[in-house]
Write a structure and sequence with these properties.
By secondary structure, the chain is of the alpha+beta class. It contains 2 helices and 5 strands; from the N terminus they run βββααββ. The longest helix has 17 residues.
Length: 88
């Protein structure tokens, strides 16, 4: 299963499931809004994401779209250091 984060104007982006050939995808935000949310509830999300992965690879949905790499973002949001963080 291949997961990615689509830029959507928010800090965390939108979770998508990407085809094996990396050319097509389906939004998965009805299962989990973000990759972090999917990881936090993996036992619930994984079977549903796997089903979407099978759908996108079989081209079984009218919601499939072409993946444009410039529309993707880092899979998990970057941590920013706070002023009280000793690493700053």
């Amino acid at each position: 299963m291949k997961l990615a984060t689509l830029k959507d104007g928010t800090r965390d982006g939108c979770l998508i499931v990407v085809s094996r050939d990396l050319k097509h995808a389906l939004k998965a935000d009805h299962i989990a809004p973000t990759l972090q949310a999917a990881l936090d509830d993996w036992d619930y999300c994984a079977p549903q994401l796997e089903q979407l992965f099978n759908e996108v690879n079989a081209r079984q949905s009218n919601r499939i779209f072409d993946v444009e790499t410039k529309a993707l973002m880092a899979p998990l949001p970057a941590l920013t250091s706070s002023p009280t963080d000793p690493a700053s």
